[in-house]
Amino acid sequence: MDILLLGPPGAGKGTQGAILAGRLGLPKFATGDLLRDAVKRGTPVGLQARAIMESGQLVNDDIIMGVVREELAKPEARNGVIFDGVVRTVPQAEGVTRLLAELGRKMDHVLFFDVTDEEILGRIEKRRAIEGRADDDPKAVATRLRAYRDQTAPVLEWYRARGGVQVIPALGPVDEIAARVKGLLGR
User: Could you tell me if residue 105 is inside a domain?
Assistant: First the structure.
């Protein structure tokens, strides 16, 4: 089962993706985590992505699609993946759809985590205090929210036009949000 998690930065996709991956026994594929790891290890993709990420901009589609292709080729991904923040542009949505089709698969569920900007800013500030992520400084967050609205929000409409977007109210305790996800998926 392939599941895409959509929503603005700080909507809880990472937290809920980890819970969902554990419950379903699927790998969670988070582009941000993979790119941050590549930056930390100094890989060629990491070197390309570092300056882009630190400025709060979105990494280009070619880099993202290369990472997605590599991850989908891994044996642990053969039964499905939780895509956490992977599809951030319409060309990426089209690309992931093609990659899954090559494997005889499709996106089974698209979950949109709906949350207010005020809540997002509070969550990211807390995360910054705990994790100290360079991409969580206020200027980078503002840039990411603008990029989300300009480039990623249209992805939601792209999936809606194809049917099957399920909206998750993403306010409240983590376990309540997880219960909403479980209720929508039936498991």
Answer: yes
Give the H or E element holding residue 111: strand 109-114
Report mean pLDDT in 10-residue bins for the chain, 187 residues.
Answer: 90 92 94 77 78 77 81 91 88 94 96 86 77 72 79 89 91 94 90
Q: What is the pLDDT of residue 160?
A: 93
Residue 71 three-state SS:
helix
Beta strands in 61-164 (DSSP E): 82-84, 109-114
Establish how many alpha carbons lie within 13 A of residue 28's alpha carbon, considering only the half-sphere containing its beta carbon: 18
Active site residue 133: yes
Catalytic residue among 23, 127, 128, 182: 127
Which residue in the list 28, 50, 88, 180 is annotated as catalytic? 88
**Which residues partner with 28 through β-bridges?**
82
Task: Write the DSSP symbol of residue 169.
Answer: E
Give me the catalytic one of 28, 50, 105, 144.
144
Q: Decide if 127 is catalytic.
A: yes
154 near 90, Cβ under 8 Å? yes
The answer to whether residue 186 sits within a structural domain is no
Is 144 annotated in the active site?
yes
- Residue 136 is part of a domain; what is its CATH number? 3.40.50.300
